[in-house]
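Thread: "does anyone have the structure for this chain?"

Original post by V.I.:
We have the sequence but no experimental structure in hand. Need at least a predicted one for the grant figures.
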Amino acid sequence: MPASRLTIRPATRKDHPALVAALGQRDFFADRIGRARHKLGELLVAWIDGKPVGDVYLWCEQFEEPELVEAFPNAPLLNHLEVAPEFQGQGIGTALIHAADDLARARGYDIVVLGVGLDNPRARALYERLGYLDWNGGSIVTRWTEPDGAGGIKHVELTIDVMVRSLLVPHMDAWDAWHPREVTSRLSGMDSPWHVAGGWALDLWRFSRGRPQMREHEDLEIAIPRECFASITVAFNDFTLCTAGRGAIRPLGRPVTMAAVPPEMHQIWVADMTVPAYRTDIFLEPGDASTWICRRDPTITRPLVDVVGHTQDGIPFLKPECVLLYKAKAHRDKDEADFAAIAPELDEAARKWLIEALAIAHPGDRWITTLESLARR
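Reply from O.Q.:
Generated one for you, tokens below.
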């Protein structure tokens, strides 16, 4: 199909007869066109040679599902994507999604949300290819009413997965991370305490002991007490700071204040829009300038000075027993590899602390048995 034959535009009342003739669903199209007239959304229709061949609706009202209301206030929903069977496989669905994303962006939204049925892997694959990510909040049930074909109304419910696309910042996988030395240089002179976390922290600990780097790192995670975050944002004035969570990455405004960061958000990504890519991930920790508090379990605390070490060139890093405590939650392949490499090198005090902390945060974790076995050698 020549691209020049395809046009996509918002539907009007005059389009209703053609939509019904081509795609049926008289009541649906009447409802969506009516909502669009009241600025509650927009029905986008794909046309070829004057005939409707597909449509998608951008729902800009409050969500009807409470889970989405809580997670994504003031976000639009991409709804009712369809392409006539004889025109499927020609890129029309992709073009409709791009048009809906562009419309949402033009209306000032920074993300778009959609739901996909659990029994529709083909649609999910399309959304993933176009940059939509699972919200990691589990499946939800959505309910609605529609004509039953006999003059009445029927109630319908569908279990869906929720997916999100960020419109104004790089894709979540677009990483070109700094080396810890770059962050150290940027934060030099700052009074607020901070440290490298995650896998890089383990390698920095090894560096401080004259050991080589274990593996390459796709990202760079640093941590700072939440109460201190606003004071370091000046070090990233030439970058876009974004909240990251629920599959959505949303840019923060300037100046950055903690009031702009929802309390459930504990990650800020630093985006370099000239690349575009993310440079570092800032963890907002529950402790303060003198006390480290485990984000997994706030009953686990230590003086900050006891959990942060430094390389010879002054890079601060979270000590390995604390890093492994965080890694125990997921047990990803790289976490297992990190544990296997680091656990035998822990001293008696660090190993004992990690066993006790794991018993609190992750009772029965298999790493406890391994650590106890190492302690008996």
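V.I.: this helps a lot. The mean pLDDT is 93.
O.Q.: and The two ends are 71 Å apart (CA to CA).
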